[in-house]
Design a protein that fits this description.
The chain has a domain at 5-13 and 98-279: Hypothetical protein af1432 (Orthogonal Bundle). By secondary structure, it is mainly alpha-helical. The protein contains 16 helices and no strands. Helix 4 packs antiparallel against helix 16 and helix 6 packs parallel to helix 8. The protein is globular.
Length: 282
């Protein structure tokens, strides 16, 4: 039985402080109140978030030569926008800890998301993007609609998993056939509900259909490719049993060459385990 997307995400706007910390930091940045003391004061309201961010900036994710022991120092070294985006990523991971684990565990789900985010961040670095952390955040969030589907519509999710096992088709294909939309669409709707930047809504909503992206086609293509890389490396699992296909137009849009894949995969491998400890285990 098809389930309306708005019913699936109803009440999700009240989820702990997922959009709140990000909103406070974003407002401070947009209003030019960007002193390290002001930003650190916002973050320090949440001791758990503070500890996670310090763990992350001191991990292989950044590989800084010296230990960063205060949030105000992290703001100076990492940057205000980058730390804002990392705060969003780790807050969301912390808020989604309980899901039915019949087909995918919450730990393996976030491990896959982190691997995807690292791969996307690495690809964005190749383009010399000024804020590669937004690609990481998009990677973290790209499959969040599947958590919503599994949690809010478990019977439909079970039918989809069974259908995929029988047909060998990717889960997102079976989702469309059964529901008329996929987990990416659910994620895009959630991002819109949270009033996060439009880029996240489009990237997440179309990461399995990058050619449908309008304003952020390159960014959507990067997540599309990074998702396949994470699956191919077997780092975590969002429920899929195979590697999603990479559409030729998405690969072309990134401008990547096959020769870069070993470098990307090596970078992901080096950063992955330490990053997982920083983002998940706290």
């Amino acid at each position: 039985m098809p389930v309306d997307t708005m019913k699936l995400i109803s009440g999700m706007d009240k989820l702990s402080s997922v959009p709140v910390v990000y909103a406070e930091l974003d407002e401070a940045i947009r209003n030019m109140r960007v002193s390290s003391s002001h930003i650190s004061a916002i973050i320090s309201k949440d001791t758990g978030l503070t500890a996670r961010l310090l763990r992350i900036v001191n991990s292989a994710f950044y590989s800084f030569p010296r230990k960063i022991d205060t949030i105000s120092r992290a703001v100076i070294i990492v940057g205000t926008q980058q730390l804002r985006d990392l705060a969003l990523a780790t807050s969301i991971i912390s808020s989604f800890k309980d899901i039915p684990e019949d087909h995918v565990t919450v730990e393996s789900f976030w491990k896959h998301s982190i691997a995807c985010g690292i791969a996307a961040r690495c690809i964005a670095g190749y383009f010399k993007e000024p804020n590669i952390e937004r690609y990481f955040v998009a990677g973290i969030l790209h499959d969040i609609g599947r958590i919503i589907l599994i949690t809010k519509a478990p019977e439909a999710a079970e039918q989809i998993f069974q259908a995929s096992a029988r047909s060998g088709k990717p889960l997102f294909v079976e989702e469309r056939e059964l529901l008329g939309y996929d987990h990416a669409s659910i994620g895009g709707e959630l991002i819109r509900l949270w009033q996060l930047p439009r880029c996240y809504e489009e990237i997440i909503g179309f990461h399995h259909q990058p050619k449908q992206a309008d304003l952020f086609k390159l960014e959507t293509s990067v997540i599309h490719v990074a998702d396949a890389i994470a699956h191919a490396m077997g780092l975590g699992n969002s429920g899929e049993t195979g590697v999603p296909p990479i559409y030729e137009e998405a690969w072309t849009a990134t401008g990547l060459s096959i020769d870069l894949l070993p470098y990307i995969m090596d970078t992901v491998e080096k950063q992955y385990h330490d990053s997982v400890n920083g983002f998940i285990f706290n």
